[in-house]
Amino acid sequence: MTDWKQKLAAWVHDPAEKSLILMRTREGHEQGTSRILRERLGIDAATLDKRADWLASAADRPNWPRPEHARYPAWERVSFTAEPSLIHPLSGDRIDLRPLATDIAPDEAKTLSTDHFSRLIFEGDAYRTFLAFWRFGPEGRLVKDLGPLWQLMPADSRVPDHSIWAHLDSVSALASALSGGERPALLAMSFGPVQGFIAQARSTSDLWAGSHLLSTIVWEAIRSIAEAVGPDAVLFPSLRGVPAVDAWLASDAVLGERGRELLQEIRSDVCTDASDTNPLFAAALPNKLMAIVPESRVRALAEQAAANARLRARAIAERAARAVLEQSGAIEPEASLPQAVEAQIAAQMAEFPEVQWSAAIWPITDDVRDLGSAAGQLQQALGAIHPGLRKQGIFQDDIWRVLSRELELDGFEFWRPNAGVLYPAVFELAERSLAAAKTARPFQQLTQVGHRCTQCGEREWLTDDRAQLELNRTDRNAVSLWGKLAGKRRSWAKDGEHLCAVCTAKRLWPTLFATEVAAGLVGKDVDKVSRFVVSTHALAVSTAIEGAIERAQTRPEATVALGNLNSAIASLGPRLESATLPKRIMPQLHQHPGLLAVAKRLPDLFEQLREEPDPGEPLAGTDIRQGDIERWVKDLFGARPETYYALIQMDGDRMGAWLAGNEDAYKLPYRDTWHPRIQAKVGEFARRDDALAAYARTKRPPSPARHAAISRALNDFSIHLARHVVEDCVKGKLIYAGGDDVLALVAVDDLFDAMQLLRLAYSGLEVPESLGLSERIGRLGPEGQRRGSNRLWLKQGFGMLDGRLMTLMGHKATASMGAVVAHHTAPLGMVLRELRTAEGHAKQAGRDRFCLRILKRGGGEVSVTSPWWAVTEKGRPIMERPRSDSDQTPCDFTALGLMSRLRSELAQTDFSRAAIYRAQQWLEGVTDARSNADGPRWREQVAGALAYQFRRQGGTGQFAPELVDFVCDVICPEHPRATLENLLVGAEFFARESRSARPVRQGEPS
């Protein structure tokens, strides 16, 4: 059993405000807030196993040990209040926090901290107190005078690349794992299937349901570990701030009413929001976990986690099956499931999800400085997997030689190694063992007879009469429960669909989960949460609707058309279903009720018009003709409504390598993680000490804090930034965002902005002014964040949204993206296949790229695969460059930025798109440069001809040389002609009237 008071002792061993008071008080940092909290909690200081602190410190940073009562040398005294800097843990970038800093006195900092934690204490309940400290301790919004600064307070101002919260989590996790003479173990678990399961979708609702259902099941496994040994023990994914975790904490069984009050204070609406903007609707958890647990409890914890996940999955399948049978009339409400259905569910859900796990023991003895035997045990275990692993990672000769011996600096011990430095080897062993378990996973063959599920094609479809499994499609539609259901709940089953237990759970999960969320709302008398699914057609039409908001008020023909459409829709009455529109345009539409009423029913009206057999005849029951509606729509929108939409899929590059941290490209030298003052002074000593110089330039191996930083960065991106970008900054709908994976629907006219903003937000890169996104993204000014939509700030791997300061992945982390533009009537399954192919092309082309594919309804495809931007030798992005030596105004230097500029020029009223067609014809006769020597001349000729065609058709052609240079230098130096042609044709597609602000010109074809 876990000793929660012992965990509390470990978690409060250092005060949260340590960096604000260090070397500024007489009593020392351990005798301030930490002592007060220990007294209030009834904790003896001796309760803490010092080994936990020593191990965590050695794993995360140089120890800098000091003899008792010895003073720090002057050069080592870094005051965080005077020089508040943070080092990005993954990129090494330094950010100056002086705009956020406050000149706070030590006594005031201690008072703020003490008061903050005192209100989190549950008297006499160490378990609840620990959970409250862990979750709400780091919340800057509860420490009003420090705000965002509190969230990223460094554990050591000399090595400000990881927070005090990461250090406290590591110490408390190790303390409970070491309790009772135990040894810590790293437990690694994996759940599946993932991609194949999500991809088996017939609608956008299925896409969301697949990812969210897996995330829910994974949380059930993680919850059992968090309840047993604490959420701090889970290194990956980071659980703090995850909506499902907050909902668990707010339950009556955990923190109850006080937990819900604290969540409301930090503006979390998991307990109050009765719509799908509730964060609980985000699929925020990946399919892997890594936790520090006691050696003796590894098997029990892993097996319990797997069992909990499968029990949850089966319970969901049973609830879904019951709903299907009740709705189809096969059983009465509250009646037992038929035996045949129960047997099918038991067989099909027996091994869902698939679970693999492994564990690696951290071979720690009572003397944590005993490296020899511990290292030998790990090398032997790694060698059993592959002989080459004995000398890889930290056991490479040059690295191990540096990390395994003591160092002195200025007469003091600078580095005293202990078993904490072995964390990377333990992590490697756990990961390698898990990979081996996946390769050799056992399974039980599932015997299935008759026809298979129409969605997955793997399992029998659910039936209360097994004889029906042999019927053909026509016969079974007439008698099966699915045939009856299709006539009553088309959102659950369409004509001909017959689903297995797993696919039934996925199909009904949106309904079931909305009911679960409603049951957990506080002060709300609702049966279910309003869940919105934006259809592909509604998303396409939203482009025209946004443009109509202004036209309906300023153009007389648009005002008349709106009135006529309102009358037509009213006469059609209940025949028209109300559609859900993108969140971004709803505030404007609510100010124009007449347009809102029309906009919400237009998608279904268009669908009905498309199915009309005779366009010249009046619609049934009315005197309204299709031609009238088409004329009114054109008057209202100024052009034919958009019929295309876009799907985006983004994936972080080489995430496994980032977590493993074995390659130099993903590691930082020790010296790059130090405060500038420390760097300078250690550099002076290192010039006279070869051993110290070797240590300073050694690439720092992975650590618990590094893994926590990666996990937090992915959490913040997926939970907060991805949704903000897709739904607040552009017209879109987030399908899922789990870690580094994003799938989203986006309106075509916002596609370029959505793609660029997602990529910038992932790495935390500052948005250049030249990209023209100032209306969508804010900048941090002297008075803090602006209100409204300008709530996001990004810079040097950090971000701030609504007052939340976040560490993101940094400029060294890259991401690849596939984007597909398709007609709304195209089969979703086909579009998803094309989307996965596009993302694969981006990866295969070299990563940190996008592949944009336009699937035209009339046939033909345009594809552009390109790096996002040019990069320096050190991998830093180049997104702007001067126009010329005489004009220093920066211009965009990104592929999408250039396409956007070309689109804007083509959309001008006096610029004919014939320029693109003629340029395309001319390029067909051009060959690529035969040699590098021919390159400059080839560029000059092509750029000149392109500019001429643009000017001839009413454009300027000013940036034709930039476009040609970018294609030749960045996108495709080998075959620039074809790439340039695709860029031109792609930009022309996006410049058409239906997806731009350009008015219709008389006599020009649409």
UniProtKB/TrEMBL annotation:
UniProt record, GO biological process: defense response to virus
Boundaries of every Cas10/Cmr2 second palm domain copy: 644-763
GO MF, one example: nucleotide binding
Cross-referenced InterPro entries: Cas10-Cmr2_palm2, Cmr2_N, CRISPR-assoc_Cmr2_N, CRISPR-assoc_prot_Cmr2, Rev_trsase/Diguanyl_cyclase
Signal peptide (UniProt feature, chain positions): none
Swiss-Prot/TrEMBL keywords: Antiviral defense, Nucleotide-binding
A Pfam entry, by short name: Cas10-Cmr2_palm2
Record-annotated CRISPR-associated protein Cmr2 N-terminal domain positions: 186-317
Protein name stated in the entry: Type III-B CRISPR-associated protein Cas10/Cmr2
Organism this protein belongs to: Thiorhodococcus minor
Lineage: Bacteria, Pseudomonadati, Pseudomonadota, Gammaproteobacteria, Chromatiales
